[in-house]
Specification:
The protein is mainly beta. Among the domains are: 1-48, no CATH class; 83-142, Seminal Fluid Protein  PDC-109 (Domain B); 257-349, Jelly Rolls. 7% of the residues lie in helices and 34% in strands. The chain has one helix at 22-47; strands at 52-58, 61-66, 71-76, 83-84, 99-100, 104-108, 111-115, 119-120, 138-142, 158-161, 169-172, 182-183, 192-195, 200-203, 213-214, 224-227, 232-235, 257-258, 265-268, 275-278, 284-288, 296-304, 309-312, 316-317, 322-323, 328-338, 343-349. It has a six-stranded mixed β-sheet, with no helix packed on it. The chain has a four-stranded mixed β-sheet with strand order 4-6-7-9, with no helix packed on it. A hairpin with a 4-residue loop joins β2 and β3 (71-76). The radius of gyration is 55 Å and the shape is rod-shaped.
């Protein structure tokens, strides 16, 4: 049954364009009552023991399946479209002074945010920023886990506690003094790091304390350190034992070095000259300031007839003292060669 309309309202319905008869009016009322009764009976059937069996979704359409096999729906589901930003470094990172539209998605410090209101970002990020009317600009989509590693850092840096707050960590370059088993005091040039039984400390380490060095006492001038197959050992290395290429540098000593004629005790330096000449007016005792291995010294003594005596001290190994005699104008020579410990007499001549 259909309804009868008095006037037309195209395209919805066509009317009779006259007043309705009593029968037409009653028929219209009967039609509506019949439809309502049918709906009431249907609803009564649904409510008599029927329940929700399961839900289903097809595309964006939502359906409710009842236990009596009836299906309610479809109900359209709202569709949310996110725009994942690709700008920033790394891509998707929040940027200052940048236009953000509603539903844009970005990350900041590992937390994912969605934009609620279109706006231009400020100079610094504020997760609680509003539009000035109390409406928040951002909502959190996914929060960074509390135990996540923070962003940033450079090669070689370590993750360390930033404060006593739980999980507050930062990337940091750890200095040597920041290590738990290192305790440094005032540093000076040439110090080493040594284990004191409890911690690593800075110390002035001696060569003899090194594990692969075995020094033999006494140390002598011009000793060298050489590998003996087990340890580094001090000693004199014969020239014949040196292999490979040698670069020999010759120091040109003065050929003659005058000494004081009137000082009774004198120390001579074998690195300043090879020949020492003097005409003593008093008896003199000579000592050497050093005994370089292989160094040579030759003394020339000129007599003035005073019978002065020349004595060679503890750094010399001589055949004895030298008396210059009472003859004026005579000359005497004494030659020495050092082994690194002493100057040994190699020749003596005179009077000449």
């Amino acid at each position: 049954m259909t309804s009868t309309y008095r006037e037309s309202n195209l395209p919805l319905w066509t009317g009779v364009n006259r007043p309705l008869t009593f029968l037409e009016s009653d028929s219209n009322i009967y039609d509506k009552e019949s439809r309502i009764t049918t709906l009431e009976q249907h609803v009564a059937t649904l409510s008599s023991g029927a329940g929700i069996d399961y839900f289903s979704v097809t595309g964006n359409q939502f359906y409710v399946h009842l236990t009596n096999h009836e299906i309610l729906g479809p109900y359209p589901l709202p569709v949310v479209t996110f725009n994942f930003r690709q700008d920033g470094t790394p891509p998707g990172t929040w940027l200052p002074s940048t236009l953000y539209n509603s539903m844009d998605v970005f990350q900041h410090n590992g937390t994912l945010y969605v934009v609620n209101i279109t706006h231009t970002s400020g100079l610094t990020f504020d997760p609680n920023a509003t539009d000035g009317s109390g409406h928040k600009l951002y909502s959190v989509l996914f929060a960074q886990p509390q135990a996540a590693i923070p962003l940033g850092g450079t090669t070689g840096q370590a993750l360390v506690k930033h404060s006593n707050t739980d999980l507050d960590t930062i990337w940091q370059t750890i200095p040597l003094s920041g290590l738990a088993d290192v305790s440094l005091s005032a540093l000076t040039s040439g110090q080493l790091l040594a284990w004191n039984g409890l911690k690593w400390v800075n110390a002035n380490e001696n060569l003899s304390n090194l594990g692969d060095v075995a020094l033999i006492a006494p140390l002598a001038t011009n000793d060298v350190l050489y590998w003996n197959g087990i340890d580094w050992q001090n000693g004199h290395v014969p020239f014949s034992s040196i292999s490979g290429n040698l670069l020999i540098s010759q120091y040109q000593y003065p050929t003659n070095f005058g000494l004081s004629p009137s000082v009774a005790t004198q120390t001579v330096d074998p690195t300043t000259a090879r020949y020492f000449e003097v005409s003593p007016t008093v008896s003199i005792t000579f000592n050497a300031s050093s005994t370089p291995d292989g160094a040579e010294m030759k003394f020339i003594f000129n007599s003035n007839g005073g019978s002065q005596t020349i004595t060679f001290g503890t750094s010399f190994r001589s055949t004895g003292t030298l008396s210059l005699g009472s003859v004026i104008g005579k000359a005497f020579t004494v030659s020495f060669c050092a082994d690194g410990h002493y100057f040994f007499e190699t020749a003596r001549a005179g009077p000449l």
